[in-house]
Amino acid sequence: MNDEPPARDPIGDDARIDALEARLKAAREREEQRSKPVLGTEADANYRLGNRVLAELIGGIGGGAFIGWVIDQFAGTAPWGLLAVMALGIVVAFRNIIRISSRPPE
């Protein structure tokens, strides 16, 4: 074992250490307050509305393409079923987006 004394003495009660701990505690509390999520703000409502519009658009195009592809597989009308039903899906998606945008804000 090593019988030599430690190179530095252990830190005792020091006013500088206490002040540093107090500043660190205050900084942690400020950071918790700053990073706490704020619910019910206007940005959250706009974000949800944007996600809904995007989902309508992707769902209309993707759903129309899938249903059109299925029709083409069974009816053998490739690519006309896909194109027709996908166009119908785009029209329905835009109609839903217009309906969403014309509603009064909540």
List the helices and strands and how they pair.
Layout: H1 15-35, H2 42-75, H3 80-101
**What is the terminal-to-terminal distance?**
74 Å
Shape: elongated
Q: Which strand-content bin applies to the residues?
A: under 5%
Based on secondary structure, the structural category is: mainly alpha
| Average pLDDT | 85
Taken in chain order, the helices and strands follow as: HHH
| Number of separate strands | 0
Q: Summarize the amount of helix as a percent range.
A: over 70%
Q: What is the number of helices?
A: 3
Radius of gyration: 31 Å
Please explain how this structure is put together.
The chain has 3 helices and no strands. It is mostly helical and 106 residues long. It has a domain of 60 residues. Helix 2 runs antiparallel to helix 3. It is elongated and about 90 Å long. The model has no long low-confidence stretch (mean pLDDT 85).
Notable characteristics:
106 residues
In short:
With 106 residues, this protein is mostly helical.
